[in-house]
Design a protein that fits this description.
This protein has helices spanning about 5-20, 75-80, 170-175, 180-190, 195-205, 215-230, 255-305, 305-320, 355-400, 405-415, 425-435, 455-465, 495-510, and strands at about 25-30, 35-40, 45-50, 55-60, 85-90, 100-105, 110-120, 130, 135-140, 235-240, 245-250, 330-335, 345-350, 440-445, 450-455, 475, 485, 520-525, 530, 540, 545-550. It is α+β, with helices and mostly antiparallel strands.
Length: about 550
């Protein structure tokens, strides 16, 4: 549901007794579109003013956010003009979405003056505008053509009808020209959003464009009752998966608290998705470059397959040089191949140089490719290992469930070559590393045994190399990226086959092969785990293992 005029009015009715008479003691601006006022009125309140186009709103919050090291200019201006100010009024006109907060404070000359903070809650037009008592703009969060400093602030009323001015249901019906309530109500009345209209029509079981006069009476009475209860704070929110709607009912908690939790979870989810996608883009870009490098290596290796041919050409030319003119320029020559029963072999020559020079050229090519085969072979092993490691990072990101998982992966890749250029914010890197040390593992209990699941390479290393004891049992899908699973067995009990199968199933479910029908899972005692020196995070060697096939 949009933060429409009805929601705004309900929140203002709730905020009025809580904040009017209170004093502003702190001002924060955690993000470019959010300002938090710390207000004391019998106790401390945090008032969130958000001008984000997607989540514009006003309500109390219990989720303070980290502030930037240097306060933005608008935050400094609000601190200058509002700290110590007393809130005199919080209001809106009708069901408009522009909130006005009136403050009483002292200016530089110690004169008592009035300041006003206007908060238009209108998606892209959302803003925070500070004015003096004459409504002259001191400054605004967003500078657009009609909100520039020293200009008058103009409160623009929407050219729609007020539901509060209706006298009866006949007047209500008069403003429904198209006979489609979802279109008419938002277009004709101030503060109505389509999502609000849809929710109330669903509640009353009224069809949008097939309704009767009795349906209109029922809808009119419901709206009257709801707007009456807005003022007495008897409304609440009904939440669905990704939306909410105002409804009648005994309010168990503050509307602000309900909205605060809803938007906090929404923003956490959005932050998680954006962070994961940004990291995935960086990692996949690095993976693409390294795969291109592997293609070039394979091309060089393909060239190396011809080195024995060049050696053969050189040897045959050298063996027959006694009856050839070494200074003659030829384009090709046919010689008996004594490695193949003297079968005639055509040897191409560069006619720009003589036979002697061609012999030197072939042996030079042979030696060059022979050396290249050794070097490129090692490069291929290193490149394939790097691709394998980056694919494990991709798996970790695709299976991340929380922002903490993203921080773990970010901490890991910020220390490796793949993001050396992309990740340059050293401050964020340090904070990420600090958070990554606080490893929170997922665990399950299977018939009295505690089983830990690593969700990324950092957690996998911790599970396998630090948490594991020698009698614990370690599980991992065979040659497939996945989580390290650790079955703790401190008393060195005999582990039933059913438990081993359950842990192997966990390993399959937390791997890239989770949708496959028959997956091999290796398991061994933790004492047979070993990490090679300089190995990438999440990579361990193991011996003395057995295999279970999970179907």
């Amino acid at each position: 549901m949009a933060f429409d005029g009805i929601t705004t009015k309900a929140i203002i009715y709730e905020l009025y007794p809580l904040l009017v008479g209170g004093k502003v003691n702190k001002v924060f601006q955690p993000t470019k579109n959010e300002v938090i006022l710390s207000i004391y009125h019998k106790k401390n309140y945090l008032l969130l003013l958000c001008a984000n186009p997607d989540n514009c709103r006003i309500h109390l919050t219990n989720h303070p956010k980290p502030n930037p090291q240097n306060a933005p200019n608008f935050c400094m201006l609000l601190r200058k003009y509002l700290i110590g100010a007393k809130i005199m009024d919080i209001s809106t006109y009708d069901l408009e979405r522009t909130v006005q907060i009136k403050f009483e404070c002292y200016n530089e000359l110690n004169d008592l003056v009035i300041r006003k903070l206007f908060i238009p809650i209108m998606n892209r037009q959302s803003n925070l505008i500070l004015t003096n008592e004459k409504n002259t703009i001191i400054d605004a969060l967003k500078h657009v053509s009609n909100t520039l400093p020293a200009h008058p602030f103009e409160f623009v009323k929407i050219a729609k009808n007020s539901f509060f001015e209706l006298k009866n249901v006949n007047e209500f019906a008069h403003f429904l020209p198209s006979n489609d309530l979802i279109i008419d109500l938002p277009n004709q009345f101030i503060g109505f959003s389509k999502s609000f209209v849809k929710s109330i029509l669903e509640e009353l079981a009224i069809h949008s464009n097939h309704y009767t006069s009795s349906d209109l009476v029922k809808l009119y009475q419901k709206l009257q009752c709801m707007f009456s209860d807005l003022k007495t704070n008897q409304v609440t929110f009904q939440f669905t998966n990704n939306d909410y709607a105002i409804t009648l009912g005994n309010k168990a908690t503050l509307l602000s608290k309900q909205l605060d939790e809803f938007y906090f979870e929404k923003e956490q989810k959005s932050t998680f998705i954006n962070s994961r996608n940004n990291l995935l883009r960086i990692v996949l870009s690095a993976l693409k470059k390294i795969q291109k490098k592997l293609e070039n290596i394979n091309t060089k290796l393909q060239e190396c397959t011809h080195m024995d041919t060049y050696k053969l050409y050189g040897e045959l030319l050298t063996a027959n040089l006694y009856h050839l003119n070494p200074h003659e320029n030829l384009s090709q020559i046919t010689l008996p191949n004594y490695y193949n029963n003297n079968t005639p072999l055509n040897i191409p020559l560069d006619n720009k140089i003589n036979v002697q020079k061609n012999i030197e050229k072939y042996f030079k090519k042979y030696n060059k490719l022979k050396n290249a085969l050794i070097i490129v072979g090692e490069q291929k092993k290193e490149t394939e290992a790097e691709i394998d490691y980056i694919e494990s990072i991709v798996f970790s990101l695709e299976n991340a469930k929380s922002i903490e998982d993203i921080i773990d992966v970010y901490s890991e890749i910020s220390e490796t070559i793949i993001t050396k250029k992309q990740l340059t914010n050293q401050k964020n890197n340090k904070s990420s590393k600090k958070k990554a040390k606080q490893i929170s593992l997922q665990s399950v209990n299977i018939d009295g045994f505690t089983v830990y699941i690593g969700k990324n390479n950092i957690q996998n290393d911790y599970v396998s190399l630090k948490l594991a004891r020698k009698n614990d049992v370690w599980f991992h899908t065979q040659k497939i990226h996945g989580s390290h699973i650790l079955l703790q067995n401190p008393e060195n009990k005999e582990i039933p086959e059913s438990i081993l199968l359950a842990c192997s199933t966990l390993a399959k479910q937390n791997s890239k092969a989770k949708n496959s029908s028959n997956v091999a899972v290796d398991y061994c005692l933790a004492k047979y785990l070993k990490k090679a020196p300089g190995a990438k995070p999440g990579l361990v060697n193991y011996t003395h293992y057995k295999t279970i096939f999970v179907k």
